[in-house]
Amino acid sequence: MAITTTDRITLSPNLKIQQGTFHVAVWGCQMNVYDADRIRDLMSAAGYVEQAEPNGADIIILVTCAVRAKAEDKVFNQLGAWRHQGVTDDHTIIALGGCVGAELAEQILKLDPTIAIVFGPRTAHRLPHMVSSYKATGDKVVDVQAEALEKFDALPEQGQRGPSAFVTIMEGCSNKCSYCIVPYTRGEEDSRPEQDILDEIVTHIDHGVKEINLLGQNVNSYRGLTPDGQVSSFANLLYEVAAIPGLERLRFTTSNPMEFTDDIIAAIHDLPVIADYIHIPVQSGSDRILKLMRRNYTADSYRELVAKLRQARPNIYISTDIIVGFPGETDEDFAETMRLVNDVKFDSGFSFIYSKRPGTPAAELDDPVPLEHKKQNLYVLQETLEKYAQQYSQGMLGTTQRVLVEGVSRKNAHELKARTSNNRVVILEGDRDLIGQMVTVNITEVMTHTLRGVRC
Ligand code: SAH
Ligand code: SF4
Ligand code: F3S
Asked: What is its EC number (predicted)?
């Protein structure tokens, strides 16, 4: 079967209205969630009808993550399981997108011959054209290359979202940390123009969104153009966004410790709309490992950054990401990580065992430490992170919190799920018409991963 690439697909603005159903499955980070939402807007605008379950959908769209080998395997396992269960059949059009799409491109057709279309994070906007081309010719389509910002210009207006919405402010990453595949899947970093971002946020707020989460792999290095052709900065963007009427809460992720400049800290101090929560991945507490990771900061400069942030915003909660078992990590290196964790006392943390990613510089390094030893260290680290997370939650008992009601509780359909400024989930009783509203609650109970609150 022939493979067609984009230069043979014309991007007509007047694609004929299509018929059929689609289902979107998404893995990975918030940037994928944003892309998946935009794919929904796009497919709906083309005439397709979304279905919440994959069973029997005409088109199944997979928005995938390649950050660790496990994330990648999940997608192929899922496809196998669906086939086995009869969820998909020979007529289902399977379109694999996201970071695995960009990473493996044509190879994917060999790994799973039932896949008809391969696209990447930068070519999501061409998906309806790829589907039409495949339907018309039966030729498989692999299309993963595009300019970083092309997608944003080609997307239809935002659809209706919940009370909180993601807004991608930049695509790609140029940092090239030695372990990370993202620069190779999402490409070099480029920032969206400031006005495009502000317009997108205004549309969301007109649709009832209360909270905006600005997204990028390294938001601190945002350098979009202003309407008069000047280069903006992340701090400047924060002031501009904060001035939009109707915005109740502003979050951003991810901030790299390297470029966390004083003007960003000043914006966090000046702008109460910015939430009391910030995610700053440290990755390791050992300077030797940080150097091998090419992170360009030290454990002490990270400690100083945290101290400055806590001075600017005494209530700020800080979370982090840590990689355990980077090639050659010794027990001394790991002890340095534990020392940092105990110094900073993170409010919460995500930790992962290092996963070798093909094509990254770290994949060339010797990695003599047995997996079992890495797993033991991960366990020790996670116990400690959990201990601090519990302490912070206990400290919230009896406090009054402004929360945004996000929806119905997953465990009990008669209860609501809300989120505090410092990113803790609160379960409360109340009518469904509170969804989308900011309410004030008293924290009455601390559960394992959530809090319970009562309206006051
Ligand atoms: N841009 C963000 C991180 C994006 S990837 C930043 O620089 O902070 C999300 C997290 O996945 C990273 O913070 C890191 O902890 C983890 N990660 C990335 N590559 C990994 C790998 N090869 N193995 C294990 N964890 C990895
Ligand atoms: Fe990966 Fe580093 Fe870029 Fe984060 S900053 S996406 S870890 S290369
Ligand atoms: Fe995964 Fe790509 Fe995000 S690799 S973490 S989906 S940028």
From this structure: 2.8.4.3
Distance (Å, whole) CA 362 – CA 377 = 20
456 is in an annotated binding site: no
Kindly report the backbone phi and psi dihedral angles of residue 274, in degrees, each rounded to the nearest multiple of 5, phi listed first: -70, 130
Residue 135 to residues 58, 92, 140, 340, 374: CA-CA distances in angstroms?
Answer: 11, 11, 9, 55, 48
Cα distance between residue 416 and residue 138, in whole Å: 47
Angstrom CA distances, 370 to 325, 335, 354, stand at: 9, 17, 12
pLDDT score recorded for residue 13: 52
Q: What is the CA radius of gyration of the chain?
A: 23
Mean pLDDT of 182-190: 95
Distance between CA atoms of residues 149 and 170, nearest Å: 8
Is residue 180 within 8 Å of 155, Cβ to Cβ?
no
Q: pTM of this prediction?
A: 0.94
Residue 419 C-beta-side C-alpha neighbours within 13 Å = 17
Sign of CA dihedral 367, 368, 371, 376: negative
If you count DSSP H runs as helices and E runs as strands, how many of each does the chain have, helices first?
14, 20
Tokens at residue 58, please?
A: 């005409």
Closest residue CA from atom 7 of ligand 3: 182
The finding on whether 66 has its CB within 6 A of some atom of ligand 2 is no
Angle of the 331-344 helix axis to the 371-395 helix axis, nearest 10 = 10
Question: Tens of pLDDT along 396-414?
Answer: 999 999 999 999 998 888 9
Residue 277 CA to ligand 2 centre (angstroms): 20
Using the mean position of ligand 2's atoms as its centre, give its distance from the Cα of residue 65 in Å: 14
Rounded mean pLDDT, 265-291: 98
Using CA atoms, how far apart are residues 351 and 331, in angstroms rounded to an integer?
A: 17
Distance from the alpha carbon of residue 273 to the mean position of ligand 2, in angstroms? 27
Buried/exposed code over 10-19 (b: 16+ C-beta within 10 A; e: otherwise): eeeeeeeebe
